[in-house]
Amino acid sequence: MSDHDKLKLILILCNICKNQDSVMLTKFMHIVAREVETEEFNRILRRAMKVMGEKTYNGQVCQDWLMNELFTLYKLG
């Protein structure tokens, strides 16, 4: 996967978090799970978290929203 593709995924993930769109996050995760290795996804996730920093949208910190949503997806399995 090229750096350009990774950057696109990071920006898409940040946009999903900004909009707090659970449906799009679920779709994003299904697509990424097929195309990206776990280690690479972890790097993308960490980079997106850095980009978002402590930004809040709708009164909730983006990082918190993302981690809560990812945990919910994990539980649903």
What does this molecule look like?
Helix content is 79%, strand content 5%. The chain has four helices and two strands; from the N terminus they run αααββα. It has helices spanning 3-19, 22-35, 38-52, 62-76; strands at residues 56-57, 60-61. Strands 1-2 form a two-stranded antiparallel ribbon. A hairpin with a 2-residue loop joins β1 and β2 (60-61). The termini are far apart.
How would the blueprint of this fold be written?
Blueprint: H1 3-19, H2 22-35, H3 38-52, E1 56-57, E2 60-61, H4 62-76
Briefly summarize what is shown.
The chain has 77 residues and is mainly alpha-helical.
Number of helices: 4
pLDDT average, as an integer?
Answer: 93
The share of residues in extended strands comes to 5-15%
Distance between the amino and carboxyl termini: 26 Å
Low-confidence stretches: none
Which secondary-structure class do the elements indicate?
A: mainly alpha
Order of helices and strands: HHHEEH
Domain unit count? 1
Radius of gyration: 12 Å
Shape: globular
Number-wise, the strands total 2
Strand order of the largest sheet: 1-2
Helix content percent band: over 70%
Largest sheet: 2 strands, antiparallel
Oligomer: single chain
